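FAQ
Q: What does a multi-component entry look like?
A: The components come first, one per line:
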Amino acid sequence: MSAVQSLPLPHLLRIYALDAYYEFLRVLRTPGAALPMLVFPAMFYLLFGVVFAGRNAQQAVYVLGSMAAFGVMSPGLFGFGIGVAVDRERGVLTLKRALPVPPAAYLLAKMAMALLFALLIFVILALLAVVLGGVRLAPLQWLGLLGAMLLGVLPFCAIGLLIGSRASAQAAPAIANLIYLPMSFLSGLWVPLSAMPHLLQRVAPLWPAWYLGELSLRAVGMARAPMWPPIAALLLFTAVFFALAVRRLRRSG
Amino acid sequence: MTRNASTSATDASVAAAPAMLHAVRKTYGAQRALDGVDLRLARGQLLALLGPNGAGKSTAIALLLGLTRADAGTVRLFGADPQTLAPRRRIGVMLQNSALPDTLRVGELLRMTANYYPRPRALAECAELAGIGDLLPRPYGKLSGGEQRRVQFALALCGRPEVMFLDEPTVGMDIAARERLWATLRALVGEGCAVLLTTHYLEEAEALADRVVVLAQGCVLAAGSVEELRARSAGARIRCRSALDADTLRAWPGVQSCACAAGVLTLSVREPEPVLRRLLAEDATLGALEVRRAGLAEAFAELTREAA
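Then the predicted structure of the entire assembly, as tokens:
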């Protein structure tokens, strides 16, 4: 994974584009793996943001913010975590490394898919929130929420990549779930942190999902904290996990 | 011939070799995969890398593809480090245990791979050369093992490579597919493409190789043309039914060994003609006669036996 890039830019872009297109076809042809990522946030929004919220307009907005964060954790964690573990185990990555293709093409293709899923989740949640939850946000707020979700995809792509670089194909789904569910809970995406024990509130800043939740709740007007610290934290998490994963992939292939 | 021939290739001519290993060592944990190996692949040459399992063949290829780094020695692909992208744009690859995405169709895989190269072959030409025209619309995962191998071969040649690395390319192929691959390889080599091929099938090396390198336990045991390696082995093998018994024949001059199984005698001889003349003269009832020059298989068996 240490190829020196020496391709003319148009050719490089053509490689990135076509690899992303074929990654898209792969995802499209295995809907069983992709559907849960879209269905779960929608289902939980219906449950907590519509059914349980009743006439509580605040809750419909709050759950939109927290489910947006919950939703965009999975494309990275599972898309990368399972996808890379399988490709690594079956030798797909080895062949890619022997071929004259920059390693970034593989990663960018997968990342593009994760971003696409974030966009889909945004659209689904927004439709449910507006139509069934009666949520009304200013255009800038919607934009802010989308921005938070697209940014929030990145650290989880990096964590997924780290899982995929180490775990076997069989273990990867379990590991991704073991990170996904507890972390989303501990970050206050299920139950607001204010309703949790003091200790859990104190350690919440350890979890990347907490910053993502802060950002998306802020976007929908449910938090007042400044925007830049969580953005910086998410970028930092991305860089650290990505570096760890790449170091591992370089060594083992 | 073994060591000298290969180490003498480390001088000026090396610079022009598309692919070479020089004094390369590689260990995986406690296991020594390659122990001071020299290898040089020339333009338009088909070099067959032979050796028992674990001899280091796949490690040699992995080093030349930049998949792993040597502990010591020099690895060069077109004079450059194979871990960089530029030299790899001039090669084609067929690995042993590498799957491709099951849900992509063959035509899509070809387009994706060809897209990595600066001057790829047209899709139809790749399909024709590898004999996969009928497979193009089918998902890769639905193909048989032999069909998947053919697709991988098409991917290896789609970039119009100057060097191809083929790690046991014909495993799982039926006879027709194998002959077709051989014919294509001969044509490509004729056009100046160099090929480094590992195989367990000695007849494959015999049919294709300009040069054979035998590896065992991470060392080069022998290197040379098929003819040269054959010459290292006993001259010929004679089989026949005869009234003469094995013990008598063993005493004849020029007979190295003689065995009798199910009434058929098998003799190893240095020169077949004098022994044949005497056999026919002494036994008028002699029948089922068969004479065969010792092949690469015998030479290989002898070489690896000596090493073990």
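Q: Is there any commentary attached?
A: Sometimes. For this entry: The CA atoms of residues 5 and 223 of chain B lie 7 Å apart.
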